[in-house]
TrEMBL record:
Its main location: nucleus. Its EC number is 3.1.3.16. PROSITE patterns: FCP1, UBIQUITIN_2. The lineage of its organism: Eukaryota, Metazoa, Ecdysozoa, Arthropoda, Hexapoda. Residues 134-294 form the FCP1 homology domain. It is found in: Nucleus. Keywords: Hydrolase, Magnesium, Metal-binding, Nucleus, Protein phosphatase. It catalyses: O-phospho-L-threonyl-[protein] + H2O = L-threonyl-[protein] + phosphate; O-phospho-L-seryl-[protein] + H2O = L-seryl-[protein] + phosphate. The keyword Ligase does not apply. This is Ubiquitin-like domain-containing CTD phosphatase 1. Its cofactor is Mg(2+). Gene3D superfamilies: HAD superfamily/HAD-like, Phosphatidylinositol 3-kinase Catalytic Subunit, Chain A, domain 1. One of its GO terms (molecular function) is protein serine/threonine phosphatase activity. GO terms for biological process: regulation of proteasome assembly.
Length: 314
């Protein structure tokens, strides 16, 4: 009798539990996913499902994949109605406003002892996996992923469609003056998969120093908004003494993520509706010029009001 395999599909912010037998194939898996999510098999991209280092063929049996019980498969794919809708949605959609975003006039919390203690704990306990060694004399650029480097909810089938325009050109230019860190409020497995999908991991023109995930973040309490998770740059500064407020800048589409380091954060315009905006989005192109400006002209990045960055390079 065939053994039952219990799997979890992670798609569009939700998780779906599946049960299949080891003798069933990847094609059977896709059909089961279709029943659960309504995403057709030909539109499913199963990011971390591998056989001998490659995406398995539809005829490959699940027993060959040696999946552990409860294995989570990250899927990208679009519903037919979403694909139809994207072709009829007006181009001039107003920017989505995140009503939990933190404005500049909110009370400063970066010096609160209880939060500094949390940072100290992350410095002590969080294990950073170095992908490429820091380089002497370089500044530090910390980048978010979702809506910063790519539109993770767009109706798209490939990494190229999701990727923000000029991404590789931007990272190549930044690498001349900056060591680069990716910090996302997700799990490390998903960060690794997204970077592979976007062609960042093994790009010959630049190198990522390391990735940070949600476990490196800390929780803070803002009276107006409640408890939220943020990305304190002090975690990096505590582990790598060559970086500090003087030579670090973080790009994120949500300002609250750098509330512990408000003078070292730049709120990037979110990249949404990729199908409509890919042809006209030049944010990374302009930010490349701003990074070059900082590297050449500024001895203390925290002394600059990064809200006015466009006036320095446009």
């Amino acid at each position: 009798m065939d053994s039952i395999i219990k799997l979890i599909i992670k798609w569009s912010g939700k998780e779906y539990e599946l049960e299949l037998t080891e003798s069933e194939t990847v094609s059977d898996l896709k059909n089961t996913i279709h029943k659960k999510t309504c995403v057709r098999p030909e539109r499913q991209k199963l990011l971390n499902l591998k056989f001998k280092g490659k995406a398995p063929d539809d005829e490959c049996r699940l027993s060959q994949l040696k999946l552990k019980p409860g294995f989570k498969i990250m899927m990208m794919g679009s519903l037919e109605e979403d694909i139809a809708e994207v072709n009829t949605t007006p181009i001039d959609i107003p920017e989505v406003v995140n009503d939990l975003d933190i404005e500049e006039d909110e009370i400063a919390i970066e010096n609160r002892e209880e939060y500094l203690a949390k940072i100290d704990k992350r410095i002590k306990d969080y294990d950073v996996k170095i992908l490429n060694q820091p380089r002497e004399g370089k500044n530090l650029l910390v980048l978010d992923i979702d809506y910063t480097l790519f539109d993770h909810r767009s109706v798209a089938e490939t990494g190229a469609e999701l990727m923000r325009p000029y991404l590789h050109e931007f990272l190549t230019a930044a690498y001349e003056d900056y060591d680069i860190v990716i910090w996302s409020a997700t799990g490390m497995k998903w960060i690794d998969e997204k970077m592979k999908l976007l062609g960042v991991t093994n790009n010959p023109n630049y190198k990522i120093m390391f990735h940070l995930d949600s476990l490196a973040m800390i929780s803070v309490h803002i009276p107006k908004y409640g408890v939220m998770q943020v990305k304190p740059l002090g975690v990096i500064w505590g582990k790598f003494k060559q970086y500090s407020h003087k030579n670090t800048i973080m790009f994120d589409d949500i300002r609250r993520n750098f509330i512990m380091n408000p003078k070292n954060g730049l709120k990037i315009r979110p990249f949404r509706q990729a199908h409509f905006n890919r042809s006209k989005d030049e944010e990374l192109l302009h930010l490349s010029k701003y990074l070059k400006y900082l590297a050449k002209n500024c001895n203390d990045f925290s002394s600059i009001n990064h809200r006015h960055w466009e006036g320095k390079c446009l």
